[in-house]
Amino acid sequence: MAKVEMTTIALQCTECKRKNYFIRRNKKKKYSKKLSLKKYCPHCRKRTLHKEAKT
Ligand SMILES: [Zn+2]
Q1: CA 28 to CA 38: how far, in whole Å?
Q2: How many A from CA of 15 to the centre of ligand 1?
Q3: How far is C-alpha 12 from the geometric centre of its chain's CA atoms?
């Protein structure tokens, strides 16, 4: 079985700067683009843009 190193990154709301989501990704894969997703923010109580941030 291949061992896959995972890293955790946070998705941070661009409006209130809160980290609402945590996702795990393969460390070895290269991601050229930074993630930015429309997600529901419980603090803003609406869907806002969430950007990748360090945990
Ligand atoms: Zn927010």
Answers
A1: 26
A2: 5
A3: 7
Cα-to-centroid distance, 48 and ligand 1 (Å): 6
Domains annotated on the chain, with CATH: 6-54 (2.20.28.120)
Q: What is the C-alpha separation between 29 and 18, in angstroms, rounded?
A: 26
Dump pLDDT digits (tens) for 5-55: 888 999 999 999 999 999 988 887 776 777 799 999 999 999 999 999 988
| Token pair for 29 | 């894969």
- Cα(29) to centroid of ligand 1, in Å? 29
